[in-house]
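Morning, I've got a small favour to ask if you have a moment. I've dropped the whole record in just underneath, so have a look.
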Amino acid sequence: MTNKKISVDNSQQIASQIADLMLDKKALDVQILDVRGLTTLTDFFVVCTSESQPQSRAICNYLQDEMLKVGIKPSHREGFEKLDWVLVDFVNIVAQIFSPESREYYDFERLWGDSKITKVDDK
């Protein structure tokens, strides 16, 4: 297992996989923000809204467990104590799980409005 950067060729595919995993746990308003060229922090943000703290916990744990199965270990996570805004950092892909109130307050898509934003729908 690794927590090193995922190859640039695979990062978009893995961001899509993370979005699908969020949808598996019934996350709402799942979006992928391509921030390559806008920041050196990461290549992609994958964001979603959770309807409850138990759902946020389930999404976070599921992401970590499923990514570990393919050999990708998060470098760290934040916000798991309050579950209002949870961040799971896979280095060049950062998954973020927001409560409805936090998603509205931080308006993440507006902050990164210059990024290419792709809405991901349940198939």
The chain has one domain: 8-120. The first strand starts at residue 28 and ends at 34. The chain is about 35% helix and 25% strand.
